[in-house]
Amino acid sequence: MARQTRRYAGGMDAARGASYEVKGNPLPYVIPPVAAIGNLILAGVLSRLWGAYAHPTVWQAAWRAALILACSAAIVWCTYAVGRARQTPLRAASMLMSTAACGGLFVLTFTRWSFDKIMTYLLIMVTASIMLAVTKLLHGKGDDARASMFGELSERVKELQDIGKTSKPKQIEGRLVARAEMLPGADFNSLAKPEVRTGIASALDVPPGGVRMIRDRNTPRTGRIEISPVDMLEHPPAWPGLSAPGGSIGQPLRIAVYQTGAPIPLLLPGDSQAGRNAIGVLILLGQAGSGKTELQLTLAAEARSRTDAEVVYIDGRKGLQLPKAFRDAMHVMITNAEDGERYLDGLIPEVAKRAGQIGGHGHEQWTAGCTKCPKFRVVIVDEASKFVESEDTLVELAESVRSVGIFVLLGLQRATGDRMPTSVRTTVGGVICMGVRDIGEGARVLSEETIEAGADPGWKNRKPGALYAELPGTDPDDWSLPGRTFKPDRDGVIGELADYLATIDEAPASPPVRAATRTPAPTSAAPVTHRADGDDDDPDADKDVECAPPPIDPDCPPDEDGADPHEPITVPNRPRVPLDLDPETERQYSPAEIRAMIRQAIVTAYGNGRRQVRPSNFAPLVGIVGENGLKPPTLAKILGEFCQGPTPLLRKNDRGVYEILPPGDGDPGTALARAA
Ligand SMILES: Nc1ncnc2c1ncn2[C@@H]1O[C@H](COP(=O)(O)OP(=O)(O)OP(=O)(O)O)[C@@H](O)[C@H]1O
């Protein structure tokens, strides 16, 4: 304590390892008593020239008293106003000082002096001076070293002494923003140290994340200090509804808001005119319970409500726990981890095809509003750590999908070394970091500047939905501004999406309709049995010459042979296996022709070395016969037929994958044995 309160004229602070000069300035303590004495002398002079001892007339006394009163009122008001921002003790001491000085001046000018009056005046002024000195000392406003508790605070804000000048703070969207210029040779980033920011937050009594330091890009000397007095994200905002149903995926998706209340826009395609790259791959990092799923659902619903996008949602962990109406609304819903991985593996080969399609009519990248470009594809992968482990795959994916109108969101729970390659940040087009274990983990995906400016996503799962976003098309200065997703409202999100889809005749088959038209369905207990006896098959399917079902066909219930009802066969345009099918035509195809095409496709695939097919592989066929020409149950039924007979072409395994048996092998026993 003694050591700490000693004053140095200059020297080394061993603890800090830096030399500096302590500015032991006595003025703050000397000024009040000196001013009190000065005021007394002034009162003496005035009383002789103007006041009690000058025998003024009544009018002279009146206007002189009025003038002194007006000056005193101005001084007291000024002290009161300036002291509003200060702590109460300091304000009280300065008010006492100022009123006692003014009162003393008035009384001692216009009344005759007495020993009591002078002693009273001096006593009050000494008290006020001591109060000011004590306040300054103990609240760290003076330059003396302080007791350890306050000395620590002083240590933390030492860097502030390097600030040369600051501008007048402005209020911008709920934040106080001031520009600061450091002394020559000092680095603005020294203010961004967590200890300094915490010290400032503590001194100003604002939330720790409420202090940000944003250095100017072209000089280390200047920057912006931003203080958010209140945490506007304490209570997440309500979901405002779909941002642009029926619009283009080129318009920003609304998934969250900044602390300031401004929306965080998610722009997926690139825009050469605006100089913005397509995002390609986005990493969404957040530990369990940090709010990833809610964000993904909102994002998926936003994308699904855009006319030129198709949405693939992969959640191999708990996809089946997502509301059925949501699953049905997606173009592709994959709830099996293996299928998800297969889908992602198949994405890269597809890039070349899409590139040909897009480049074929002279576009360098996917372009919103172009009818010749394929639909923009949004792929949301809930737990993608396995996929991200392979740096090569990730780099290849990120680099290739960007221009061909594919966006892949890779959800991750952890970003430790064994889970993610270090180069990930430079590879992907965008990052959203939700609550993680600590700032170090966040720093694996967020940029150095964002962390340095004060971003600290170490909320774990204490503040679900809170996030930092580094997204194309957003101001990098805002990357360290915390944001939050909307208050969870699954029913609202899914309901509004379903309403929109109904208006464009894309409403998913609703469960109540199916339930009403279906006989109490056996569940997955005996899938093959149902297929074999044919009772559950649509008896009218073969008679349906045009194979064009209405969206909900009570006579053709979804496949009940145990296959996942969310099997990606519902989705057109998902060519994953080159099946050498004919180009699209306007023709209507009969069921027999469709069967022949499917058979031919399988034989061709086998000739190309494929040994397995899945219903989703026949997506190109859907493209040929029309989106409504081949409904999923019919495809499943046809594939089921190919598993039957003396020379089956296929054999279905329990994961819904069909193994191709050697075509033309007349001996089913041999074929099956080989397939087994
Ligand atoms: N913006 C938000 N405000 C308040 N609560 C939220 C917000 N976002 C999500 N939550 C709540 O946080 C909890 C966890 O959310 P969610 O399931 O989305 O997390 P998660 O990261 O997907 O977790 P897991 O990885 O375990 O699936 C849920 O109860 C959800 O309702």
TrEMBL record:
Alphabetical UniProt keywords: ATP-binding, Membrane, Nucleotide-binding, Transmembrane, Transmembrane helix
Stored InterPro entries: AAA+_ATPase (IPR003593), FtsK_dom (IPR002543), P-loop_NTPase (IPR027417)
Protein residues bound to ATP: G286, Q287, A288, G289, S290, G291, K292, T293
UniProt biased composition (Low complexity): 512-529
Keyword Amino-acid biosynthesis: no
Segments crossing the lipid bilayer: 29-50, 62-83, 95-115
SUPFAM superfamilies found in the cross-reference section: P-loop containing nucleoside triphosphate hydrolases (SSF52540)
FtsK domain span: 261-443
Region (Disordered): 508-582
Protein origin, superkingdom: Bacteria
Biased composition (Acidic residues): 534-543
Keyword ATP-binding: yes
Official protein name in the record: FtsK domain-containing protein
